[in-house]
């Protein structure tokens, strides 16, 4: 769904709205004037952020006088569902006709049944609500609930309606059917229907007294039958109840019908500034707007053509993040999702271990068949909680004392373990082994430089006073880090050259993986630092580092998994690649010499820091998006991948690497400076509100998009995938989606590494927080291969006024992974860890 240069979001948007309103007045009154009331209503209709779409079925989703869903309209519904837009069918049909429509939408669109959880229906003119259950999404509209007040004296009421109909139609066939909390009279022609309605209206008071509630009469048509529905509840009231179920307001539902004229079956629903008619419309200027052609001239569009045009012009931003007030009603859905996600996570781990076992089998033929022993060896390559390469103590005995790998990782002298902390800088002990990540890897968590303390430069505060620079904003700290990295890269290159002359074995395979992991970290930290220094712009320096990162990812992936990757040839290529990384680090170090301070944090802790987990999430996300035809297969039309800088900085590079590896159209990659947490927050308030202020923020946020393809200025009209590490509340994801769609991108989904767990229930229910809509997980949001590592908060602590402590559990823990690394840092290098 792309936006045009001219239209409600074009350069002359106000003029376009003037002309649209003027044409609506002309169509409804015959006068060619600009009515202020109509202009205000049209402006609101096109500037409202819609969270869902309500469709009439007969005449809107079907062709005239047909019962079956039009295949073209089924595809429109499919596209909405795939983008996580809730679709509500609003109809006079009963449950049988609605289930048939749902089945036809599924058959005509070929959408996965999982997406049908976002398909709802209001039947019997608003008195019946149908949805597809989370527990069994294969049962279309399996959950049914009656809405509205119950009618009294049902038998007597039916007899009275039959008498009324018989008196008018005589011998002509008719039928009176009970429809839950309403009645339907079916007739063979429109003229008889109008006569019966006149008779009913003349007896309205007595009928209402008999029913015990105020009854209303509605017109409708189903196939060749002309219907009259008698009920105390209408579609509009039912839509209000559905809106509250979705956690939105009724005005945030875009309403599309074809019988919007006075007395029409859709009149009540479309009698709203959010109502658009793709057929007949009423004469009121503020509601039930016709859909005009792109040039705003000629007769209004109708049917499917009108629906398609309208969906390109309105702001359709479905909720990804739900308000905490609705959490109690949705927690069970989140628990059901978590059960499925954990099962899939285990299967993905098994798949990765199988691939690593095959790689080891071909790399070291003496290890035998890739069965149980090799699988165990593959599973032991990585520390499962941090993503670091893990060595066991007995493996250290196999590495000669003078091997350059010992000096590279500053592996501790085994004789000194008893006397003092190892104080290694590029490795550290965990509780189960030695991690080939050390204090230098987690530089942003340190109090002091492990290779010599730095003096924090003072900066001038807002009141002219001197204040200490936080270490993650310290230019001096960045310079020290880059200096240490350059030495590591030099030593790593020498180590790789030595390893190239040696025979491959599991220990040396681990050493190379450890070097790859640390060089990867250097590139990621350098990319983010350059991105900050250069003002979030795609400067040549930033693009150069990103290209290096993609090249490194390609080598990293091939060395990991390609069974035919030759040991000596690979290491010769890698030595050359390390030299390029060293040049990039030197260039960034020179740039850092000329800046007085940093405006935001660098060298930060990355929550999702497992290369294998990140690759696994992107692989499965790309596979599932391709399966659903959401990604382009046309080599002339690339796919775009936008990483959220605060957590998804590595993921676009992995996507670019995988697109090349799988012979997909090239990837256009970008990064968005979006954050909702901490002092670097760049998201306006009211993500879920859709207020005018929020919309203004969305419209201005394009400048925060850094596209690594220097020839491209925007992602307009490209399929776009958003990428991030976590989706704990989905507010960051929702805002990023909103500003990208507003700027013209077709956001087809998101790939997120870690899934939210129900153990965060207390945090999710906190005022102002919220939670992901469970229905978008495994639908709009893909990947999700590991649980978020957060501690369970059983009860809210007493110190809820402190933002820094409100997430902590009774043991003062929130992020279990981060706390674990801090504990290791303190054990291994107490002075640096503080």
Description:
The chain has 834 residues and is of the alpha/beta class. It is 42% helix and 14% strand. It contains 25 helices and 27 strands. The chain has an 8-stranded mixed sheet with strand order 6-5-4-3-2-11-12-13, with helices on both faces. The chain has a 6-stranded mixed sheet with strand order 23-22-21-24-25-27, sandwiched between helices. Helix 19 (611-627) crosses helix 20 (651-661). The two termini are 53 Å apart.
State Rg.
Answer: 31 Å
Q: Give the strand content.
A: 5-15%
Q: Mean of the pLDDT scores? A: 86
Dominant shape:
elongated
Helicity range: 40-55%
The chain-level structural class is: alpha/beta
**Low-confidence spans: pLDDT under 50, at least 5 residues?**
453-468
Strand order of the largest sheet: 6-5-4-3-2-11-12-13
Major β-sheet, in short? Answer: 8 strands, mixed
Figure out the total of helices.
25
CA-to-CA gap between the ends? 53 Å
Number of strands: 27
Any descriptors?
834 residues, alpha/beta, eight-stranded mixed beta sheet, six-stranded mixed beta sheet, 25 helices
